[in-house]
Protein backbone atom coordinates (compact mmCIF):
# COMPACT_ATOMS: atom_id res chain seq x y z
CA UNK A 1 0.00 0.00 0.00
CA UNK A 2 1.36 3.40 -0.95
CA UNK A 3 1.72 6.15 1.63
CA UNK A 4 -1.13 8.05 -0.06
CA UNK A 5 -3.47 5.07 0.08
CA UNK A 6 -2.48 4.39 3.67
CA UNK A 7 -3.27 7.96 4.63
CA UNK A 8 -6.62 7.75 2.85
CA UNK A 9 -7.45 4.52 4.68
CA UNK A 10 -6.53 6.00 8.06
CA UNK A 11 -8.64 9.04 7.25
CA UNK A 12 -11.55 6.76 6.36
CA UNK A 13 -11.31 4.81 9.62
CA UNK A 14 -11.15 8.05 11.61
CA UNK A 15 -14.19 9.33 9.76
CA UNK A 16 -16.07 6.09 10.44
CA UNK A 17 -15.29 6.34 14.14
CA UNK A 18 -16.77 9.83 14.27
CA UNK A 19 -20.26 8.68 13.19
CA UNK A 20 -22.72 6.69 15.30
CA UNK A 21 -23.35 3.09 14.27
CA UNK A 22 -27.06 3.72 13.71
CA UNK A 23 -26.28 6.33 11.06
CA UNK A 24 -23.90 4.00 9.25
CA UNK A 25 -26.40 1.17 9.38
CA UNK A 26 -28.80 3.28 7.32
CA UNK A 27 -26.35 3.45 4.41
CA UNK A 28 -26.70 1.12 1.44
CA UNK A 29 -24.27 -1.80 1.82
CA UNK A 30 -21.36 -1.90 -0.61
CA UNK A 31 -22.03 -4.50 -3.31
CA UNK A 32 -18.77 -6.19 -4.24
CA UNK A 33 -17.45 -9.49 -5.52
CA UNK A 34 -14.20 -11.16 -6.47
CA UNK A 35 -13.23 -14.56 -7.85
CA UNK A 36 -9.67 -15.89 -7.53
CA UNK A 37 -7.83 -18.92 -8.86
CA UNK A 38 -6.52 -20.50 -5.65
CA UNK A 39 -3.42 -22.05 -7.23
CA UNK A 40 -2.13 -19.04 -9.14
CA UNK A 41 -3.71 -16.18 -7.21
CA UNK A 42 -5.05 -14.78 -10.50
CA UNK A 43 -8.09 -12.55 -10.09
CA UNK A 44 -10.62 -13.85 -12.62
CA UNK A 45 -13.29 -11.23 -12.00
CA UNK A 46 -13.86 -8.41 -9.54
CA UNK A 47 -16.23 -5.54 -8.77
CA UNK A 48 -15.61 -3.00 -6.01
CA UNK A 49 -13.19 -5.54 -4.52
CA UNK A 50 -11.08 -2.89 -2.77
CA UNK A 51 -13.98 -0.78 -1.48
CA UNK A 52 -14.36 -0.69 2.31
CA UNK A 53 -17.39 -2.47 3.75
CA UNK A 54 -18.41 -4.47 6.80
CA UNK A 55 -17.47 -8.15 7.24
CA UNK A 56 -20.35 -9.25 9.51
CA UNK A 57 -19.83 -12.92 10.44
CA UNK A 58 -17.09 -13.36 7.84
CA UNK A 59 -15.10 -12.05 10.81
CA UNK A 60 -15.28 -15.53 12.30
CA UNK A 61 -12.95 -16.76 9.57
CA UNK A 62 -10.16 -14.88 11.32
CA UNK A 63 -11.34 -16.08 14.74
CA UNK A 64 -11.13 -19.62 13.38
CA UNK A 65 -7.73 -18.97 11.78
CA UNK A 66 -6.34 -17.90 15.17
CA UNK A 67 -8.10 -20.84 16.86
CA UNK A 68 -6.45 -23.28 14.46
CA UNK A 69 -3.11 -21.56 15.08
CA UNK A 70 -3.57 -21.92 18.86
CA UNK A 71 -4.43 -25.61 18.42
CA UNK A 72 -1.35 -26.17 16.26
CA UNK A 73 0.95 -24.67 18.88
CA UNK A 74 -0.69 -26.38 21.84
CA UNK A 75 -2.18 -23.27 23.44
CA UNK A 76 -5.56 -24.99 23.52
CA UNK A 77 -6.82 -28.54 22.92
CA UNK A 78 -9.83 -29.76 20.97
CA UNK A 79 -11.48 -31.28 24.05
CA UNK A 80 -10.61 -28.39 26.36
CA UNK A 81 -13.65 -26.82 28.03
CA UNK A 82 -14.30 -23.09 27.77
CA UNK A 83 -16.52 -21.20 30.17
CA UNK A 84 -19.23 -18.98 28.75
CA UNK A 85 -18.95 -15.59 30.41
CA UNK A 86 -21.82 -13.16 30.97
CA UNK A 87 -20.43 -11.16 28.07
CA UNK A 88 -20.31 -14.19 25.76
CA UNK A 89 -23.80 -15.26 26.77
CA UNK A 90 -25.17 -11.82 25.85
CA UNK A 91 -24.26 -12.13 22.17
CA UNK A 92 -27.32 -12.41 19.93
CA UNK A 93 -28.80 -13.69 17.73
CA UNK A 94 -27.00 -16.96 17.00
CA UNK A 95 -25.56 -18.69 20.04
CA UNK A 96 -25.50 -22.04 21.82
CA UNK A 97 -27.35 -20.40 24.72
CA UNK A 98 -25.99 -22.80 27.33
CA UNK A 99 -26.00 -19.98 29.87
CA UNK A 100 -23.30 -17.98 31.59
CA UNK A 101 -21.04 -20.08 33.79
CA UNK A 102 -21.56 -23.24 31.74
CA UNK A 103 -18.97 -24.68 29.39
CA UNK A 104 -18.49 -25.81 25.81
CA UNK A 105 -15.52 -27.60 24.29
CA UNK A 106 -13.16 -26.01 21.81
CA UNK A 107 -14.44 -28.52 19.23
CA UNK A 108 -18.02 -27.41 19.87
CA UNK A 109 -16.96 -23.78 19.63
CA UNK A 110 -15.25 -24.38 16.29
CA UNK A 111 -18.15 -26.30 14.79
CA UNK A 112 -20.61 -23.76 16.15
CA UNK A 113 -18.76 -20.94 14.40
CA UNK A 114 -18.38 -22.93 11.17
CA UNK A 115 -21.97 -24.16 10.85
CA UNK A 116 -24.19 -21.89 12.94
CA UNK A 117 -22.08 -18.73 13.34
CA UNK A 118 -22.46 -18.89 17.12
CA UNK A 119 -21.43 -15.60 18.67
CA UNK A 120 -21.08 -16.90 22.23
CA UNK A 121 -18.57 -19.49 20.99
CA UNK A 122 -16.51 -16.87 19.16
CA UNK A 123 -16.47 -14.66 22.24
CA UNK A 124 -15.49 -17.55 24.53
CA UNK A 125 -12.52 -18.38 22.27
CA UNK A 126 -11.45 -14.73 22.17
CA UNK A 127 -11.67 -14.25 25.92
CA UNK A 128 -9.72 -17.44 26.56
CA UNK A 129 -6.93 -16.68 24.10
CA UNK A 130 -6.56 -12.93 24.68
CA UNK A 131 -8.46 -12.01 27.85
CA UNK A 132 -11.03 -9.79 26.14
CA UNK A 133 -12.74 -9.17 22.82
CA UNK A 134 -10.80 -5.93 22.34
CA UNK A 135 -7.44 -7.60 22.92
CA UNK A 136 -8.37 -10.41 20.56
CA UNK A 137 -9.42 -7.84 17.97
CA UNK A 138 -5.90 -6.42 18.06
CA UNK A 139 -4.47 -9.92 17.52
CA UNK A 140 -6.87 -10.42 14.62
CA UNK A 141 -5.85 -7.15 12.98
CA UNK A 142 -2.15 -7.93 13.44
CA UNK A 143 -2.65 -11.33 11.78
CA UNK A 144 -4.60 -9.64 8.99
CA UNK A 145 -1.56 -7.48 8.26
CA UNK A 146 0.67 -10.57 8.17
CA UNK A 147 -1.66 -12.08 5.58
CA UNK A 148 -1.65 -8.96 3.41
CA UNK A 149 -5.12 -7.80 4.47
CA UNK A 150 -4.09 -4.18 4.59
CA UNK A 151 -7.57 -2.63 4.52
CA UNK A 152 -9.10 -4.73 7.30
CA UNK A 153 -9.61 -3.76 10.94
CA UNK A 154 -11.08 -6.24 13.42
CA UNK A 155 -12.48 -5.18 16.80
CA UNK A 156 -14.44 -8.24 17.91
CA UNK A 157 -14.38 -12.00 17.18
CA UNK A 158 -17.98 -12.45 16.05
CA UNK A 159 -18.65 -9.78 13.46
CA UNK A 160 -21.46 -8.17 15.44
CA UNK A 161 -21.89 -4.54 14.32
CA UNK A 162 -19.07 -2.12 15.05
CA UNK A 163 -18.43 0.85 12.72
CA UNK A 164 -14.68 0.43 13.22
CA UNK A 165 -14.68 -3.20 12.02
CA UNK A 166 -14.14 -2.96 8.27
CA UNK A 167 -12.78 -4.98 5.38
CA UNK A 168 -12.84 -5.44 1.59
CA UNK A 169 -13.79 -8.29 -0.71
CA UNK A 170 -10.18 -8.78 -1.78
CA UNK A 171 -9.03 -8.98 1.85
CA UNK A 172 -11.69 -11.60 2.57
CA UNK A 173 -10.47 -13.58 -0.43
CA UNK A 174 -6.94 -13.43 0.99
CA UNK A 175 -8.23 -14.78 4.30
CA UNK A 176 -10.10 -17.61 2.60
CA UNK A 177 -6.99 -18.56 0.63
CA UNK A 178 -4.90 -18.44 3.83
CA UNK A 179 -7.25 -20.84 5.63
CA UNK A 180 -7.05 -23.31 2.75
CA UNK A 181 -3.26 -22.98 2.46
CA UNK A 182 -2.24 -22.87 6.13
CA UNK A 183 -4.78 -25.23 7.72
CA UNK A 184 -5.80 -27.74 5.03
CA UNK A 185 -6.96 -30.42 7.50
CA UNK A 186 -8.96 -28.01 9.65
CA UNK A 187 -10.36 -26.41 6.50
CA UNK A 188 -12.24 -29.65 5.77
CA UNK A 189 -14.59 -28.75 8.62
CA UNK A 190 -15.99 -25.93 6.51
CA UNK A 191 -17.71 -28.48 4.25
CA UNK A 192 -20.05 -29.41 7.12
CA UNK A 193 -23.67 -28.66 6.21
CA UNK A 194 -24.95 -29.28 9.73
CA UNK A 195 -23.97 -30.32 13.21
CA UNK A 196 -25.29 -32.06 16.28
CA UNK A 197 -24.95 -30.22 19.57
CA UNK A 198 -25.82 -32.20 22.67
CA UNK A 199 -28.42 -34.29 20.93
CA UNK A 200 -29.91 -31.48 18.83
CA UNK A 201 -29.40 -31.33 15.05
CA UNK A 202 -28.85 -28.03 13.27
CA UNK A 203 -28.45 -26.97 9.64
CA UNK A 204 -26.03 -24.32 8.40
CA UNK A 205 -26.76 -21.10 6.50
CA UNK A 206 -24.62 -21.65 3.39
CA UNK A 207 -26.86 -22.21 0.37
CA UNK A 208 -23.92 -22.33 -2.04
CA UNK A 209 -22.45 -25.26 -0.12
CA UNK A 210 -25.64 -27.23 -0.71
CA UNK A 211 -26.32 -26.20 -4.30
CA UNK A 212 -22.94 -26.07 -6.06
CA UNK A 213 -21.03 -29.26 -7.04
CA UNK A 214 -17.56 -29.32 -5.50
CA UNK A 215 -18.31 -26.56 -2.96
CA UNK A 216 -16.52 -27.14 0.36
CA UNK A 217 -16.81 -23.91 2.38
CA UNK A 218 -16.37 -21.31 3.76
CA UNK A 219 -18.55 -18.74 5.62
CA UNK A 220 -21.61 -16.52 5.34
CA UNK A 221 -22.51 -13.34 7.17
CA UNK A 222 -25.21 -10.72 7.48
CA UNK A 223 -25.89 -7.48 9.28
CA UNK A 224 -28.11 -4.64 8.20
CA UNK A 225 -25.07 -2.48 7.43
CA UNK A 226 -23.13 -5.18 5.56
CA UNK A 227 -25.85 -6.82 3.54
CA UNK A 228 -25.56 -10.53 2.78
CA UNK A 229 -21.95 -11.69 2.53
CA UNK A 230 -20.28 -14.95 1.62
CA UNK A 231 -16.76 -16.30 1.12
CA UNK A 232 -16.70 -19.67 -0.51
CA UNK A 233 -14.61 -22.18 -2.40
CA UNK A 234 -15.23 -24.98 -4.85
CA UNK A 235 -13.11 -27.39 -6.84
CA UNK A 236 -13.72 -29.50 -9.95
CA UNK A 237 -10.92 -31.87 -8.91
CA UNK A 238 -8.30 -30.09 -10.99
CA UNK A 239 -8.55 -26.47 -9.91
CA UNK A 240 -9.98 -24.52 -7.03
CA UNK A 241 -11.64 -21.12 -7.09
CA UNK A 242 -12.29 -18.85 -4.11
CA UNK A 243 -15.07 -16.31 -4.36
CA UNK A 244 -16.42 -13.45 -2.27
CA UNK A 245 -19.76 -11.65 -2.53
CA UNK A 246 -20.48 -8.76 -0.19
CA UNK A 247 -23.51 -6.53 0.18
CA UNK A 248 -26.06 -8.74 -1.62
CA UNK A 249 -29.75 -7.99 -1.02
CA UNK A 250 -30.68 -11.44 0.27
CA UNK A 251 -29.25 -14.82 1.13
CA UNK A 252 -30.59 -16.24 -2.12
CA UNK A 253 -29.18 -13.31 -4.12
CA UNK A 254 -25.66 -13.89 -2.80
CA UNK A 255 -25.94 -17.61 -3.61
CA UNK A 256 -27.19 -16.96 -7.14
CA UNK A 257 -24.46 -14.37 -7.78
CA UNK A 258 -21.78 -16.75 -6.56
CA UNK A 259 -23.13 -19.65 -8.64
CA UNK A 260 -23.08 -17.44 -11.75
CA UNK A 261 -19.47 -16.41 -11.10
CA UNK A 262 -18.31 -19.98 -10.53
CA UNK A 263 -20.24 -21.35 -13.50
CA UNK A 264 -18.77 -18.80 -15.86
CA UNK A 265 -15.15 -19.17 -14.81
CA UNK A 266 -15.00 -22.82 -13.76
CA UNK A 267 -16.47 -23.81 -17.13
CA UNK A 268 -14.09 -21.49 -18.99
CA UNK A 269 -11.09 -22.89 -17.15
CA UNK A 270 -12.23 -26.47 -17.73
CA UNK A 271 -12.10 -25.83 -21.45
CA UNK A 272 -8.43 -24.82 -21.38
UniProtKB/TrEMBL annotation:
UniProt keywords, alphabetically: Carboxypeptidase, Cell shape, Cell wall biogenesis/degradation, Hydrolase, Peptidoglycan synthesis, Protease, Signal
One protein family per Pfam: Peptidase_S11
Gene Ontology MF terms: carboxypeptidase activity
Residue ranges annotated for the Peptidase S11 D-alanyl-D-alanine carboxypeptidase A N-terminal domain, each copy included: 31-249
Signal peptide residues on this chain, from the entry's feature table: 1-25
Family the entry assigns: Belongs to the peptidase S11 family.
PANTHER family reported for this sequence: D-ALANYL-D-ALANINE CARBOXYPEPTIDASE, TRAFFICKING PROTEIN PARTICLE COMPLEX SUBUNIT 12
Protein name, UniProt field: D-alanyl-D-alanine carboxypeptidase
Originating species: Peteryoungia desertarenae
Lineage of producing organism: Bacteria, Pseudomonadati, Pseudomonadota, Alphaproteobacteria, Hyphomicrobiales
Amino acid sequence: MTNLLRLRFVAFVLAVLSFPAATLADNTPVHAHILVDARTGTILESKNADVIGYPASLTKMMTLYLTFEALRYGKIQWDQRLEISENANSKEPYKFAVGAGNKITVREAVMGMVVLSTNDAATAIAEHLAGSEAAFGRLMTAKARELGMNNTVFTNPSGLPDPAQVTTAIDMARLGLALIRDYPEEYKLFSSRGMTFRGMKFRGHNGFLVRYPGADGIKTGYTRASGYNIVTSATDGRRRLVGVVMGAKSGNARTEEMIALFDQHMNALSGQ
